[in-house]
Amino acid sequence: MTTILDSSHFPRGHFIERICVFDGESDIEVVRPSDGVALGATSAGTASTVDLAIRSAQRALRATGWASCAPRERARVLRRRADLIDADPLLPQLEAIGSTRPIADAKASDIPFTADAIRFFAEFADKSGGEVANTQAQSLGMTVREPLGVIAAITPWNFPLSMASWKCGPALAAGNAVVLKPSELTPFSTLRLAQLAVDAGVPPGIFNVVNGFGAEAGGALVSHPGISKVSFTGSTRTGKAILGMAATSIKPVTLELGGKCPQLVVEKVPNMRSSLSS
Questions:
Q1: pLDDT tens digit sequence for 77-122
Q2: How many whole angstroms separate alpha carbon 92 and alpha carbon 82?
Q3: Which terminus of the chain, N or C, has fewer Cβ atoms within 10 Å?
Q4: Pairing, β 253-257 against β 229-234
Q5: What average pLDDT does the segment 156-163 reach?
Q6: Where exactly are the structural domains of the chain?
Q7: What local confidence, expressed as pLDDT, does residue 1 receive?
Q8: How far apart are CA 17 and CA 24, in angstroms?
Q9: What is the pLDDT of residue 32?
Q10: How many CA atoms lie within 13 A of 44 on its CB side?
Q11: How many CB atoms lie within 10 A of CB 207?
Q12: Which residues contact 257 (CB under 8 A, 6 or more apart)?
């Protein structure tokens, strides 16, 4: 499979509700890492852009009934979204070109992995429920699971689609809305993913994408009082900063950080190359 994309295929701006939105921000030039060639540009979101996306998500939750609809209906929509991901001709090219990977690899690996992750979480929509607690005969005690509201998701440059599916899949299946900020290095496939969500029947505004740099757009997203939970994948340093920003409004945070697998090699370890060849 060879690329057919030119700059006209790269989505620009932010995806809010059902369209790409421009808010007068400066452009971020997105380059191909293999040779430094400029692929296109996207917008650098500001605090006002983030606020626009979050307010859109809040309105969508109130107006569409996504949080209160039958869980099987959400599962049906998410399964249809997975089917569209599998069939979309642009998505593997957008995923591959930003990271300079073979398109065939993205089509054979990243795309089905992303679609299967969406299907996996869709199955939890009607299977994750509450519990009835043991009480005395005259009492009834229950634990009820409810959607949190608007979830902030921040993904890194590597494997943009996979990272987005891990964050948005469970959040949407549980009835939440999502505002996602992808890496400014690889934004294009995530914007396409948002369009496919609307095409599949996810109500406009339930899954919004804001582009921008971490310090401004990411910081505004994490610290916004309209965000109910934060999910972040990236560096330990940034994760620490996110914890501090989220603490101002006391919201739960899920972090997947780097540096989780340290290795120590001491002087007395024999030469590994010699050991393997003997």
A1: 999 999 999 999 999 999 988 777 888 999 999 999 999 999 999 9
A2: 14
A3: C
A4: parallel
A5: 92
A6: 15-127+145-214
A7: 45
A8: 18
A9: 79
A10: 10
A11: 30
A12: 233, 234, 235, 236, 239
Q: Does domain 15-127+145-214 have CATH number 3.40.605.10?
A: yes
Task: Look at the chain and count its residues.
Answer: 278
Q: Binning pLDDT at 50, 70 and 90, where does residue 179 land?
A: very high
DSSP assignment of the chain: ------GGGS--SEEETTEEE--SPPEEEEE-TTT--EEEEEE---HHHHHHHHHHHHHHHHHH-TTTS-HHHHHHHHHHHHHHHHH-SSHHHHHHHHHT--HHHIIIIIHHHHHHHHHHHHTTTTT---EEEP--TT--EEE-----SEEEEE--SSSHHHHHHHHHHHHHHTT-EEEEE--TTS-HHHHHHHHHHHHHTPPTTSEEE----IIIIIHHHHH-TT--EEEEEE-HHHHHHHHHHHHTTT--EEEEES--------TTSPPHHHHHH-
Interior/surface letters 160-185, b for 16+ CB within 10 angstroms, e for the rest: bbbbbbbbbbbbbbbbbbbbbbbbbe
Which range has highest mean pLDDT (87-101, 180-194, 257-271)?
Answer: 180-194
What integer pLDDT is reported at residue 273 of this predicted model? 56
Burial 57-72 (b: 16+ CB within 10 A, else e): bbebbeebebbeeebe
| The pLDDT value given to residue 129 | 79
